[in-house]
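wait is this the right file?? whatever heres the structure
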């Protein structure tokens, strides 16, 4: 007799496991299926967490090399890459085991294996030995995330031609690395290997990096990364990538049809991700996909099959772990008869380079496109006492507010701890705050957050320290 569950979540990433826990909290008998063998999905295993570990460790390595400029003199600094990778792997193991404990604590049944639909109410789970278990489900949530996209005709070997997965596991520092794509992931991983000693070249098809980001921030970001030694080749299209015994050749064509070959040890292809719906048997049960192979859903995350739902990277919207988490909680509450909701206007995006870049709400370009009249408040970290005191003062805070109502429409930050500072703007926007609300809120001194207050004051041209 097959086990019966009220809800089954296929996928144990940030969206899936959070959804499963919330369902269980709401009193529903819940199962979570994960094929990887460890919970946490791409984010925890081969994405957000290990990359942030390496970003932090590589930044520490860079700082130690430059401490003598600040009066702290030490001996020769050496990189032990193997130890650094073990430190990264340890953080991942601790966190994945922690998620497993959370499922157990909340009485979620956890199945290790590849989940697929046998019918609308039957789920097949095949483990690593191909042993099949069938379970029954009243409602099922697809939360299988996304996988890296390569270029046409080019396959990842994860040694010389790598995705973000391979870039997290290199066994030695490449002398030269080419990053194809100037988005968040490519720039983060490029920063890691640049700080550890690689010569990094970024090849980008567009005329700017970080597509979709506020252009002023994007331009400032590129200036800073250039100062750090990363080389950019804009409006270059990759024509082919070839491996030989000693190197990889990346052949490109620029906007004037000039051909350039880049010879490197490793090429990181970072041109985006696609929904991971392989092997789910969605066609068998008739779940509809859109033109980008994303699962089609309504505002309640419901597919065209009324007892099947989908969240996270497999549906429309930014492919972000925190977006998937919020959707997981929302769909759990909807299934339980509550009014789950996600405010897509207040989902922040962060690039965890040094300095960090963070964004929320509308960009200037989007406001212009919609013909919305707005005011700008800007404040440089060069005028922030905490940033100056610790010699970490690159970048600025930019707040966009409605010209008539002063309601905050968006904010864009580049500078120290931008990923933490953006949360204040998120709360303000969630409550429909004006820039004056932020400006009149007392901020502790000396802190980086004072730059947010000063940017809010600057919206009405009354910043104190600039």
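ok assuming it is, sequence goes like this
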């Amino acid at each position: 007799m097959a086990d019966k569950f009220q809800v089954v979540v296929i996928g144990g990433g940030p969206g899936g496991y959070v959804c499963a826990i919330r369902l269980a909290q709401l009193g529903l008998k819940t199962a979570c299926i994960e094929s990887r063998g460890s919970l946490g999905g791409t984010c925890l295993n081969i994405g957000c967490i290990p990359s942030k570990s390496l970003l932090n460790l590589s930044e520490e390595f860079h700082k130690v090399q430059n401490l003598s400029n600040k009066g702290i003199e030490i001996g020769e600094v050496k990189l032990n890459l193997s130890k650094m990778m073990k430190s990264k792997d340890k953080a991942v193991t601790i966190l994945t085991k922690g998620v497993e404990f959370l499922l157990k604590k909340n009485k979620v049944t956890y199945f290790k294996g590849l989940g697929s639909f046998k019918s609308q109410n039957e789920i097949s789970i095949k483990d690593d030995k191909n042993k099949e278990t069938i379970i029954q489900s009243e409602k099922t949530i697809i939360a299988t995330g996304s996988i890296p996209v390569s270029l046409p005709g080019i396959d990842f070997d994860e040694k010389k031609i790598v995705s973000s997965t391979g870039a997290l596991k290199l066994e030695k520092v490449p002398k030269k690395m080419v990053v194809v794509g100037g988005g968040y992931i490519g720039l983060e991983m490029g920063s890691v290997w640049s700080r550890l000693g690689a010569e990094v070249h970024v090849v980008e098809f567009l005329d700017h990096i970080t597509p979709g980001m506020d252009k002023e921030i994007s331009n400032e970001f590129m200036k800073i990364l250039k100062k750090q030694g990363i080389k950019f080749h804009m409006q270059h299209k990759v024509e082919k990538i070839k491996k030989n015994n000693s190197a990889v050749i990346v052949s490109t064509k620029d906007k004037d049809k000039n051909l350039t070959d880049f010879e490197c040890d490793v090429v990181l292809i970072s041109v985006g991700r696609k929904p991971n719906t392989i092997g789910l048997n969605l066609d068998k049960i008739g779940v509809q996909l859109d033109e980008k192979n994303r699962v089609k859903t309504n505002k309640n995350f419901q597919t065209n099959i009324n007892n099947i739902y989908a969240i996270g990277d497999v549906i429309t919207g930014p492919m972000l772990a925190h977006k998937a988490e919020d959707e997981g909680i929302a769909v759990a509450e909807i299934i339980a008869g509550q009014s789950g909701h996600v405010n897509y206007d207040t989902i922040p995006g962060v690039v965890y380079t040094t300095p960090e870049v963070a964004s929320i709400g509308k960009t200037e370009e989007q406001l212009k496109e919609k013909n919305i009249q707005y005011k700008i408040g800007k404040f440089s970290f060069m005028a922030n006492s905490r940033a100056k005191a610790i010699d970490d003062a690159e970048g600025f805070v930019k707040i966009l507010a409605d010209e008539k109502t002063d309601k905050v429409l968006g904010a864009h930050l580049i500078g120290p701890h931008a990923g933490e500072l953006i949360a204040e703007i998120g709360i303000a926007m969630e409550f429909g705050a004006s820039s004056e609300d932020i400006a009149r809120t007392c901020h502790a001194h000396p802190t980086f957050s004072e730059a947010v207050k000063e940017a809010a004051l600057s919206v009405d041209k009354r910043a104190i320290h600039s």
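The chain has 14 helices and 22 strands. so i think its the right one actually
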